[in-house]
Amino acid sequence: xxxxxxxxxxxxxxxxxxxxxxxxxxxxxxxxxxxxxxxxxxxxxxxxxxxxxxxxxxxxxxxxxxxxxxxxxxxxxxxxxxxxxxxxxxxxxxxxxxxxxxxxxxxxxxxxxxxxxxxxxxxxxxxxxxxxxxxxxxxxxxxxxxxxxxxxxxxxxxxxxxxxxxxxxxxxxxxxxxxxxxxxxxxxxxxxxxxxxxxxxxxxxxxxxxxxxxxxxxxxxxxxxxxxxxxxxxxxxxxxxxxxxxxxxxxxxxxxxxxxxxxxxxxxxxxxxxxxxxxxxxxxxxxxxxxxxxxxxxxxxxxxxxxxxxxxxxxxxxxxxxxxxxxxxxxxxxxxxxxxxxxxxxxxxxxxxxxxxxxxxxxxxxxxxxxxxxxxxxxxxxxxxxxxxxxxxxxxxxxxxxxxxxxxxxxxxxxxxxxxxxxxxxxxxxxxxxxxxxxxxxxxxxxxxxxxxxxxxxxxxxxxxxxxxxxxxxxxxxxxxxxxxxxxxxxxxxxxxxxxxxxxxxxxxxxxxxxxxxxxxxxxxxxxxxxxxxxxxxxxxxxxxxxxxxxxxxxxxxxxxxxxxxxxxxxxxxxxxxxxxxxxxxxxxxxxxxxxxxxxxxxxxxxxxxxxxxxxxxxxxxxxxxxxxxxxxxxxxxxxxxxxxxxxxxxxxxxxxxxxxxxxxxxxxxxxxxxxxxxxxxxxxxxxxxxxxxxxxxxxxxxxxxxxxxxxxxxxxxxxxxxxxxxxxxxxxxxxxxxxxxxxxxxxxxxxxxxxxxxxxxxxxxxxxxxxxxxxxxxxxxxxxxxxxxxxxxxxxxxxxxxxxxxxxxxxxxxxxxxxxxxxxxxxxxxxxxxxxxxxxxxxxxxxxxxxxxxxxxxxxxxxxxxxxxxxxxxxxxxxxxxxxxxxxxxxxxxxxxxxxxxxxxxxxxxxxxxxxxxxxxxxxxxxxxxxxxxxxxxxxxxxx
Length: 945
Description:
This protein is α/β, with parallel strands linked by helices. It folds into 4 domains: 1-170, no CATH class; 205-531, Thiamin diphosphate (ThDP)-binding fold, Pyr/PP domains (Rossmann fold); 604-636 and 661-798, Rossmann fold; 812-944, Rossmann fold. It is built from 32 helices and 24 strands. The strands form 5 sheets. The protein has an 8-stranded mixed beta sheet with strand order 3-9-10-8-7-4-6-5, with helices on both faces. Strands 14-11-15-16-18-17-22 form a 7-stranded mixed beta sheet, with helices on both faces. A 5-stranded mixed beta sheet has the order 19-21-20-23-24, sandwiched between helices. Helix 31 links the parallel strand 23 and strand 24 (912-917). Helix 8 (205-228) runs antiparallel to helix 18. The protein is elongated, with a radius of gyration of 33 Å. Mean pLDDT is 89; it is low at 5-14 and 55-87. Residues 601-794 form the Transketolase-like pyrimidine-binding domain. Its cofactor is thiamine diphosphate. Its EC number is 1.2.4.2.
């Protein structure tokens, strides 16, 4: 093991030649006492990749095994007339108890750590950490014991030194939880990082001065804003200023590992501070926002503590692009958005292990414990479709959520971070009033993420010096806490005094730091020294081609026949020896016939061919949802499963050697986090088709926050374009309230200013052109597609190859064999599946006086296209809107004024009537017989009222 580490050292050019002996001596010293080597070398050795989880010479035997061997030797000695076992049994027992004591501190030391800067948190004693619990006494403190796997640099030590060292390591300013992790390599990794330095590395004067400078910046901005804009909401960082040096170290250390991009997410608290002091936003821009000046030239804009930002900073490893995600007030919902953005950037860079792009997400303690999307985001973290190689989570632990501070009210877990244990993420609780401990925790967190590519949590235990916001009076609900806070020196003042006492800095130098920072703010200068003023534009995504287009922008979505035939043949090819399930085999055979023109094409063919042609034209595709490989209603079968060995075949990934990626993943059973992830992905990938499919359309309810706060309003609030497509199965087949409606009324109610598209395609050709239009058109708007269930195999819901090779998506669709307009006196307007019920009624009753017109796009409302069809029918007397949904749902309330306006333009005397279900609290009835009666009535009403 030792040799392999040294081999890694010799492979670096600056360590060759005459330096070898010196470096080897340094490394040997580092293994026994990391504080005895210079900080620069310690940092270098800390970041060396481990081999089998070990970073030092292997321990030949575990301590417990040594004890058994020792006891065994005693027993052998007894059997051969040697020293009786009883003579050493007490010593053996004590030795084992010492090893149990060591283990207890590793497991439970965090419960006695000095984490709370306020001293308010009183924790009960942990009996496991006392000598007496292990049947040891103060009298034993001078006795020598073997240290086993303890990394204190000596094989034997006095019990007193062992106990004191353990308390320093695990019960000071850092409380580390890592023993819940199953992987022994990880447990050893933390022990070898923390125990040799007793969790308190000795930092050099320059490092400590830099820490003070970062704290000065963090405190300085808050003081400046507080005096210049008193009482104005800013959700300041006072009490949690250590976040700024924490972020600074994480970013610089990530850059030293070769990271190129970091995506950050956070809620409100400290956001303005991070924008100015970490990302380098010009303070003058922030001041303009405080003074109410309109800076955005689009939409509504948003409050300043929701704003995102991006910049480039320089690190020892090169330029790093930072992107802070925009977020609403729904706290933790930004977390999966960040993960999606990171995954997209990793895909673009072909960064398969997450070493070039990584997420850092900041949370509030109450939200981290209380918001279910946190659990969903952790659950995604190690899956194929959503993993990003580990996330660094920072909990800004105010120890209060708005006005809720009592732990029994705020959560049921010991820590707000306990949810992270579900993925065995290590958790580093750290006292935010100890900046050097925060620095050490930050270094460990980044090194851990780089080494193991898993999530890790820094629990930054701090406090809110102000209330929930600056207009809030916190002592009304937390009098004891805020009495202590008023008397408490700031983190910066405490650390400055510490450095002054240590002779690292003078009082005048500390004061000068404050004045220089304030002067920079007065001048409106950038205050991030590592900011790159002329950033490398290759680190950015160019959205310019997608700006400034009307929703009516034209594009070609038809595809030449030879291309369809060639791709159709590819899609029907199955690897030799691949055993396809019987029903699936028939679907593939039928698709071969469709390609040959021997069968009309069905929905599955139209959809899959849309994907194939887009891939053929160089557009990547990502398709996720709970059953997308097969399709909930068994129509897609984009992923085939070998019936013999369970292997899979995805024909859409085998179209050509140079095709872009086609990613398809059956997701975890989540709507909120998964849709947010795909939103984040789509805001970073303009040239791709990104699709999320609901198992049933109304399951999107679980992601309503994403729909409301991101999908429908993100462009208007933040100028963030997004082309995410939602496929929401919808249709009234008598399957009850939760399996009928995609709740299209909710989407339509959110429609304004051409923010999204709501389409209800009813033919395979329409879904083909709709999906292709989503990418081929030069604008990026979210698409909400209300897709069918029973129509997937309906004998009338078919198209021809000609429909794919000609035309485009039609927002308004007449019947294929329409009545003579001169004979038509009644027009039925509708959307979706009900069209086929109406068509059957018309054919059965031979109603040549009726025309049925489908609105395939409900928003933006296609007024011009509807006018064009209406103009052909000059003898209309009755116009009816027919829908399956109850009157208070569906398109009726949100769209009727558009249709009435169209009728007025044609003939002011025409009145739009309604045929559909009565208003209902539930989306649909749950009784088949009632459903059939209702459906029959609404169809009849459309022809008679």
